[in-house]
Amino acid sequence: MSSNVRFTDFKSDAQPTWCPGCGDFGTMNGMMKALAETGNSPDETFVVAGIGCSGKIGTYMRSYALHGVHGRALPVGAGVKLANPDVEVMVAGGDGDGYSIGAGHFIHAVRRNIDMTYVVMDNRIYGLTKGQASPTSREDFETSTTPEGPQQPPVNPLALALAASGTFIAQSFSTDAQRHAEIVKQAVEHDGFGFVNVFSPCVTFNDVDTYDYFRDHIVDLADTDHDPTSYDDARSRILDPGKEYQGVLYRDEESVPYERSHGVDADMSDIPDGAPEDAMDLVREFY
Amino acid sequence: MPADFNWAIGGEAGDGIDSTGKIFAQALSRAGRHVFTSKDFASRIRGGYTAYKVRTSVDQVQSVVDRLDVLIALTQRTIDENLDELHEGSVIIYDGDRTTMEDVEIPEGMIGLDVPLQALAEEAGGAIMRNVVALGAACAVSEFPIENLDSALEKRFGDKGAAIVENNKAAARKGREYVLENYDEAFGFELECTDENYVLLNGDEAIGMGAIAAGCRFYAGYPITPATDVMEYLTGRIEQYGGHVVQAEDELSAINMALGAARAGARSMTATSGPGIDLMAETFGLVATSETPLVICNVMRSGPSTGMPTKQEQGDLNAMLYGGHGEVPRFVLAPTTIAECFHKTVEAFNLAEKYQLPVYLTADLSLAVTEQTYPPEEFDMDAVEIERGKVVDEGTVGEWQDESGRFKPHALTEDGISPRAFPGTEGGVHMSTGLEHDELGRRTEDTDMRVRQVDKRTRKVETAREREPFEPREFGDPDADTLVLSWGSNEGALIEAKSFLDEEGIEARYLSVPYVFPRPDLTDAVDAAEETIVVECNATGQFADLIEHDTLTRVTRINKYDGVRFKADELAERIADVLATDEGAEEATA
Ligand SMILES: Cc1ncc(C[n+]2csc(CCOP(=O)(O)OP(=O)(O)O)c2C)c(N)n1
Ligand code: SF4
Predict the structure, then answer these.
(1) Residues 370 through 389 of chain B touching chain A, CB cutoff 8 Å
(2) Which one, of A85, A277, A269, lies nearest residue A191 by Cα?
(3) Predicted confidence (pLDDT) per residue in B395-453, tens digit
(4) pLDDT score of B473 more than 60
(5) Which residue among B383, B406, B431 closes a domain?
(6) Do B39 and B22 meet the contact criterion of CB atoms below 8 Å apart?
(7) Under CATH, which number does the domain A7-286 receive?
(8) ipTM computed for the complex
(9) Cα–Cα distance for residue pair A110/B446, rounded to 1 Å
(10) Which residues of chain B neighbour A48 with C-beta distances below 8 Å?
(11) Which residue of B has its CA nearest to A67?
(12) Can you tell me the mean pLDDT for A57-80?
């Protein structure tokens, strides 16, 4: 890893096509800052992106990257990390991508606890498909496909992560640049699966969960007596309805990442020219 | 036709049928006899009929036949299920004390040996050894030296302690002695032993072994019959070579993990069966568009839907050739024997990396779960070659950068193959995507670039056709008027059917095709034949359709889709029938 990496090194030369004012700009800047500040270089970083406006992030960042299919970014990240644990893996996507079509993978990625970072750009709407309800949309939020609102309670991603034995659960607000970058940085530094749900407003399709709304409602955990290492503190905050927290809600200091508990440490790209030297032993097992 | 001996043990699932059958098969293999096993099993763990069948000869055996010489029947149903295969002089070993066997009916002309399996096992140290007593009885009937059973018992029970091994040996001897004392007739079987040392393995194991030999280090899968054995084989073994197996939450995850690992530079694989292939279809397209080398193993079973999960079929050919939206270049390799499962797996990894695309490696249930003996040299590890294709490192990456120093993972090349850079390679930074893209991997809807990228991906297939032999396996008379084609596990039955047909004076040229796509050009072979017969285990003749499409010639189809593999004698009869009908038709028009 090179120490003189600047966050702009993680910027590609592609011009983002996000709507002016989209929260994803700030989310991405914070991710790039966090990567640079933790001493990673684009050569040794792999970004996996989901599908959605949020998923375009893989194009705008500069690193090894894969822009996959809808909802399946997390397993791709797992594969990269296990095949080469030296690579820094960051997975990013939207709330639809992560909590709807990819919800199953989310729960299992959390409990698998591979040492990577997952950033969800939560705009509480489907942006790319032009404004349908997402799993985090409010119960009465009227959209083209839910004219009366979804009439189902939104999912609580932090609660899902806690229930799935998450070891690092955080939330940030994309426009609060300093704080957001700092929280993502802690997620990167966490030994295990670092999960950050980012409020990343959609200025085009969501007129409820706006910058103003979040500005007015966010409570920064740094301003409270919250102890992120306390499971009970985390649980009561996460299950507190209607509260929009910013900060690290839970951090398991004993977290042992999957790679370590499973003894996965080899760079698997490195293989011999022929069969392993003792491969005939594999045959002899069948005597 | 080798002098073969056919043996089976059958009972209810949970009766230990599998492990008992395997002990006998291993004993035969260790005594230098060739073995071919097959299993009748139902999709349940307890209850329901299940049987393990062993065909053995001093010559190689590669198929099953419609004949059973000795049957150990733990239930009446075992006899009923096998009536067709039992014949005059067949020996049935059973325990008349068992409640299920009290009113046992031994069919006319067959020999029933009532052996108190349970009581003798108890005498030897525990009722659980009942099946081993039966094995001892089978040794007496077949004049197979019981010492050969000992080493198989040691292998099976060795890690449970010497006492258990000794008890089992004693149990086997009790079974043998009981038969010798109570039945003094000669049964007419004699299982000769040789000094050869064979290995005994099934197709799934051969695939797993081939994967390790080929340098596969990452496997992600979700359990499904009959592919699970691949995963079970790799678990615990791949780690010894620095690899890892993940049991994913579902098939979507499995293929995506495997994709991620492949992008990180690992030789990577997933294995599943039909329903799993359906789930993987979306990512399959991404694998191809992102030009990621990946081996996807499909161990076919009866479909559609959950179909008959424990039964044979070759019904997924179309799904593999055409599955997924859009047009996706892919290779489909179908090993035709258990040994070929090993060799084709190695080849699948090389092809995947050389051409940077998804490779379907498909076995069918019959190959996957049945075992066959081979001389160990058949799996010559020194002959394994690993070809990684166009992988760049820091020294060569510069050749593949644009004027601004950006790496071109989808460079337009004459052969259609672009360079690959693994993370960690300085100067190789790039993004891949399922979206249509330019040479740099950037999304594009430019009409010209779209066409050039599609052409580039498609061109790999032509390149492979030029560079790889993709030859069929041939046997029989090359000048015969009849051409018989098959794919997958039918080869073994075909080789043995040939012996039956030879005896009848029926000659044919046989081609067994392990490369389904790209496939060899069979036009000349089909044109040269008066009649082409295509043999496969499905109802519609998916492979036959391909041959007709390629050669513009009508073929005759022999299909089987009852869930059971072709038996050699059955197949010979069906081929003979086709030819006899033709002759009849000719006479009628003469
Ligand atoms: C299998 C599949 N189904 C549906 C889609 C269409 N689709 C693209 S993005 C998207 C939703 C994206 O929402 P979200 O993850 O919240 O991301 P955002 O665009 O809001 O950032 C959908 C449904 C798809 N690409 N693939
Ligand atoms: S539609 Fe919404 S989420 Fe998508 S780019 Fe525009 S503002 Fe951002």
Answers:
(1) 376, 379, 381-382, 384-386
(2) A85
(3) 999 999 999 999 999 999 999 999 999 999 999 999 999 999 999 999 999 999 999 99
(4) yes
(5) B383
(6) no
(7) 3.40.50.970
(8) 0.97
(9) 39
(10) 260
(11) B433
(12) 97
Q: Give the minimum alpha-carbon distance from B346 to chain A in angstroms, rounded to a whole number.
A: 10
Q: Are residues B311 and B276 in the same domain?
A: yes
Q: Within B505-567, where are the H helices? A: 523-528, 542-551
Residue ranges of A 182-211 with Cβ closer than 8 A to chain B = none
B365: its two tokens: 């249930």
pLDDT tens digits, A122-152 = 999 999 999 999 999 999 999 999 999 999 9
Q: Is the domain of B579 the same as that of B528?
A: yes
Q: Cβ separation of B265 and A68 shorter than 8 Å?
A: no
Task: Specify whether B377 is located in the same domain as B446.
Answer: no
CB contact under 8 A, A83 and B268: yes
Residue-wise pLDDT tens digits, A145-171: 999 999 999 999 999 999 999 999 999
In a domain, B72, yes or no: yes
DSSP symbols for A168-233: EEEEEETTSHHHHHHHHHHHHHSSS-EEEEEE---TTT-SSS-HHHHHHHEEEGGGTT--TT-HHH
Residues ≥6 apart with Cβ < 8 Å to A40: A1, A5, A88, A188
* Residue ranges per structural domain of chain A: 7-286
Please name the member of B199, B424, B427 whose beta carbon is closest to the beta carbon of A86.
Answer: B424
The answer to whether residue B389 is domain-embedded is: no
* Residues B228, B361 share a domain: yes
**How many domains in chain B?**
4
Which residues of chain B have a CB within 8 Å of the CB of A111? none
What residue type is B315 in one-letter code? G
How close A262 comes to chain B (CA, Å)?
9
The continuous run of DSSP H or E covering B583 comes out as helix B568-589
Decide if B52 is inside a domain: yes
Residues B322 and B455 in one domain: no
Distance A69 CA to ligand 2 centre (A): 19
- In a shared domain, residues B77 and B159: yes
Task: Give whole-number Cα distances, B238 to B151, B206, B212, B232, B358, in Å.
Answer: 27, 14, 7, 10, 22
Q: Please give the DSSP secondary-structure letter assigned to residue B215.
A: T
Whether ligand 1 lies within 6 angstroms of the CB of A121 is answered as: yes
**Closest atom of ligand 1 relative to the A123 alpha carbon:** 20
Last residue of a domain, one of B131, B162, B197: B197
Euclidean distance between CA atoms B79 and B94, whole angstroms:
10
Supply the angle between the helices A23-37 and A177-189 in degrees, to the nearest 10: 50
Residue nearest to atom 9 of ligand 1 (CA): A52
Provide the chain A residues 87-106 that lie in CB contact (below 8 A) with chain B. 87, 104-105
Closest-CA residue of B relative to A66 is B432
CATH number at residue B539: 3.40.50.920
* Cβ–Cβ below 8 Å for A67 and B267: no
Q: Does A80 touch chain B (CB under 8 A)?
A: yes
Which of A106, A119, A121, A128 most suits a substitution to test ligand 1, by most atoms within 8 Å of the C-beta?
A128
Spatial CA neighbour of B55 closest among B71, B80, B38, B41: B38
Tokens matching residue B112 = 């029933």
Range of the domain at B120: 5-197
B182 lies in some domain: yes
Bridge partners (DSSP) of residue B272 are B298
CB-CB under 8 Å, B252 with A66: no
Residue of B110, B105, B133 whose CA lies nearest to B121: B133
For chain B, what percentages of helix, strand and coil (3-state, to nearest 5) are there?
40, 20, 40
Instruction: Please report the pLDDT score of residue B1 as a whole number.
Output: 37
Which residue among A17, A28, A51 is best mutated to probe the pocket of ligand 1, counting the most ligand atoms within 8 A of its Cβ?
A51
Both B477 and B340 in one domain: the answer is no
Under a CB-based contact definition with an 8 Å cutoff, are residues B226 and B368 in contact? yes
Put simply, whether the predicted model's pTM sits higher than 0.80 gets the answer yes
Are B354 and B407 members of one domain? Answer: no
